[in-house]
Write a structure and sequence with these properties.
homodimer; Alpha-Beta Plaits; 5-stranded antiparallel sheet; 18 strands; globular; EC 1.-.-.- (chains A, B); alkylglycerone-phosphate synthase activity (chains A, B); oxidoreductase activity (chains A, B)
């Protein structure tokens, strides 16, 4: 069953590999875990629902405590602290599970007529507070799209698939695979997040280099709003005015509920492999990565770990004997201390894959990359969606782990990366605490790339103090990001946690443009208020 | 010097090749030209400027007749008829040529304070009435960005170039070429259209398959609005809410004046060639084209002419002897009557180009394509921007030529193409007139492509009747496009001519979204009113 207070299936546990605990203890000290609250205890705290008059909707809306607990929070670190401590604060007053567009329309009518706030809910995997109720003195109805999870239509000629917006990653792919297709959208949250959520939060998947971000995959669809139904026709490209798709992408529930997504799909590839190359230092590694993408070499995935992430990944890989052999091999070829690991994917027809591989290896070689084949790449592919489970294992050991991510122009990458890492690494110094901080670049563009930084720190003696530590790290570093040419988020969206930083990034008139849309579609701010913007 | 009443430089004339006139006469009859009005006659008709109090702005705003004539109309067929007949109707009351952002701000302040309407003007190449003044009882100031035509900044690492928005195609490319870069945006209007105009009208270039549409090339920039300056930061990609760039793209002057464009550029390619393949019939040709793009073969350009366009192009190619040899060669290989010509470009490193060419030829062969090398492709490349001059030559012979274009999903391409061609071919039957109609597909996407249809008809005895013929063809066929799954424009924008068809395509709520933006930025509808939407 899905964990009510953490990531994923509660039957699946990922152990910290041999030596992992020592590795962390050496860097930031031994830790001890906080006590977790039980589901029963939290359910006992859930107050009466404030939803008025459910006449005719009682089959659709569930107000029992457990479902309200299970839809109260996402997966951000503050969400974890809230769920683990049991101090959740506000719960939705009910959870609706519509199965049809007309049921969604009924729910919209209900909230309009009864002065209720509504939060659209996809997979509940937000790490930025998208789906948390806020206290504005109104009842809150959370609407989960989980029952709208089918492949509704498939147009093979146009390679378009229509899905219910609540379809989670594995069901998207399995329903397409049966017909020989893939969407190719693989965010880290793939196991639980939904296609509608990807659109609403402008998600990006690990293979965006081939398949594109969700912006490129979202061809059109259906959005139920308080003003009626918005149907966005599928047109491959158009010069007919501003693009309505792009107003829905990233709208985070503020304009309406996305109920159907028409997505651009691809034939399953004939060939796919992930290759790993080590570079002697960051400068060569980063330049090689930039050249690969600026030279338009057809890769399906590219990820470049900095030296600390490389060291951390090798330390946590398990199999210390084999890793030690690998490091000797690399060292003999010039990739020693400070080495950086690059993983890249080649996907397509066999002809394309072999041509791309040849081109990519040539560029890597120019920057002294040591090619190690596909063994480590296969490992990455195998574990690509299980990483969030590591958070559970670390939590049980007393370590909190979170990530911060942005995207910026190439010219700015090193400067911003350095500032982010320093801010996170030194942020807890006055509390005599350390963080272990490491970074990779991913989602590469000719213009720049995403910087994805992970930080691990010890939980404090109390939940409240742990939250303070997180808040300090998160807020100071987020401010640094937007003040230094980065976006507040490349792939996690805005939610409530990033909303304060939006005006710095978008400017007053940028915010005016977004507000013009939300005000026009939802003048009374009933839909997901305070998410994205006030 | 630039023609005041037609396309391009008046020293450059393109002759109809040998046999061209007979070819048309055989199909739609002999024609005779209408009399053109002179520039002097039109200047004499220009009324007094209605612009109030030019205190402090008289250096910036020119109210003399000739400049007002030269900025009164674009390049649509009704614009041609207006200019050729001298019945232009409304002229702008003055033309401003600002050189700086602060001058643009001054002009905005002026129109705001003096109840004047403002039309932003790029290259004046609109074929949809974007820059034509309309009579709303207010003085009209046209603001040409022509003096803002410099490369302002170049970031080599991030491959970003900042241009003044009025920079025309050749100046974009020549300023970049000096540094070893290209933007790669080559619309048919390249010679005159500007980078700011491309953004404002969501333009697409002939090599969009490699470089992307202007949406992919526009990284950010500066827009002067009545509410202040909107600066869009350059961020490679972001999940921070709806994308402001995408609200400016296609805004057609309704939100403000784009003054600076930051564009994503590419190193000049090592290799570029255009290859031509003939297919025995449309079905095979269209399927091959679809496969090429759906298999993600790295091409830089793809264009597929239907049988009538192929026949027309070969007839108008000149060199009838050589063409006859070519046709014998093709016929022996199965591409005879009904054959369709495909042109594709391969661009990139030599390795990439040879890999792509190999992959592309393999697909073409599967569908019985007869490869003919690069000779015809080089001809296409050489003449790619001179085609608009042909219009002048045809006009002098008494033929009017126009194009209609859309984009639709693959599943719908044949059906819509057939409807468009039939509508244009039969539209003048009750006037006992014929049109010569032919089509190519271009701008290919996994999901679909652009349909680009050219139609030639004889001018009538009068300008008024010629305009009536055009109106009938244009409006009936435009209605067919939006009622049958096409966009009202894939690459020409909306302007005033396509505005009536927008609500059918976008729906009531789509229009609400766009209107929310225009109302927020320009509540009094001072900027380019009636363009895009009311």
């Amino acid at each position: 069953m899905r964990r009510w207070n953490g990531w994923g299936d509660d039957k699946f546990n990922l152990d910290i590999p041999e030596g992992g605990q020592d590795f962390l203890a050496e860097r930031i000290g031994q830790a001890s875990a906080l006590n977790d609250c039980t589901l029963e205890d939290v359910c006992a705290k859930v107050p009466e629902s404030r939803l008025p008059s459910l006449d005719g909707l009682s089959d659709l809306i569930d107000t029992s405590p457990e479902i309200r607990v299970r839809h109260a929070r996402g997966q951000s670190l503050p969400d974890w602290l809230a769920m683990r401590s049991g101090e959740i604060g506000l719960f939705p007053d009910g959870v609706a599970l519509p199965s049809t567009n007309s049921e969604v329309q009924k729910l919209l009518k209900y909230v309009q007529e009864n002065d209720v706030h509504l939060i659209p809910y996809g997979g509940g995997t937000s790490v930025a507070g998208h789906i948390n109720p806020v206290d504005q003195g109104k009842p809150v109805l959370t609407v989960s799209l989980a029952n709208m999870n089918r492949l509704i239509d498939l147009d093979r000629d146009s390679q378009l698939a229509t899905f219910g917006a609540g379809t989670p990653g594995p069901l998207v792919e399995s329903q397409l695979r049966a017909h020989g297709y893939t969407l190719g959208h693989f965010p880290q949250s793939f196991e639980l997040s939904t296609i509608g959520g990807w659109v609403a939060s402008r998600s990006s998947g690990q293979q965006s280099l081939r398949y594109g971000r969700i912006e490129q995959l979202f061809a059109g669809g259906r959005i139920e709003t308080l003003q009626g139904t918005l149907e966005i026709p599928t047109i491959p490209a158009s010069s007919a005015g501003p693009d309505i798709r792009e107003m829905i992408l990233g709208s985070e529930g503020r304009l309406g509920l996305i109920t159907e997504v028409k997505a651009r799909i691809t034939r399953l590839p004939e060939h796919e492999r992930f290759h790993v190359v080590f570079f002697p230092n960051w400068d060569k590694a980063r330049t090689a990565a930039r050249k690969l993408v600026q030279n338009r070499i057809q890769l399906s995935m590219l990820r470049l770990s900095n030296a600390i992430e490389t060291e951390t990944q090798l330390a946590l890989a398990g199999h210390p004997g084999l890793i030690s052999l690998l490091e000797k091999f690399l060292s003999l070829r010039g990739a020693d201390d400070g080495k950086c690991m690059m993983t890249f994917g080649v996907t397509g027809s066999k002809d394309q894959a072999s041509a791309s591989l040849k081109q990519a290896r040539k560029v890597c070689k120019e920057y002294d990359g040591v090619y190690t084949g596909t063994k480590l790449g296969s490992k990455w592919a195998e574990k690509r969606f299980t990483m969030p489970y590591l958070r559970e294992a670390l939590w049980q050991m007393g370590y909190a782990v979170d990530t911060l991510e942005t995207a910026t122009d190439w010219e700015n990458v090193d400067r911003l990366l350095e500032k982010m890492e320093t801010s996170l690494r030194t942020g807890l110094e006055d509390k005599q605490e350390k963080s272990h901080v490491f970074t990779h670049l991913s989602h590469f563009y000719g213009q720049g790339c995403s910087i994805y930084t992970t930080y691990v720190f010890r939980v404090a003696d109390t939940y409240a103090e742990t939250l303070e530590r997180w808040k300090h790290l998160k807020n100071t570093t987020s401010e640094i990001i937007v003040r230094n040419g980065g976006t507040i988020s490349h792939q996690h969206g805005v939610g409530k946690d990033h909303a304060p930083f939006m005006p710095i990034e978008k400017g007053e008139l940028g915010m005016r443009a977004i507000r013009a849309l939300t005000t026009s579609f939802d003048p009374d701010k009933r839909l997901n208020p305070t998410t994205l913007l006030d």
